Amino acid sequence: MQHDDEETAAFLAAVQEGIADADAGRTVPYAAVREWLLSWGTEHEKPAPHCK
Predict the structure, then answer these.
(1) Helix%, strand%, coil% for the chain, nearest 5
(2) N or C end of the chain, less CB within 10 A?
């Protein structure tokens, strides 16, 4: 697929990569992401979760 706008092309490539990761089972559970995000800006900020 050809795109004139480099930003659009980069966005679409990232989306395709994300879909491929999800199809391959490389995902992070919602609860883990939520827990991590809620810790931002606190004294007990958690490390980013990893794919399961």
Answers:
(1) 55, 0, 45
(2) N
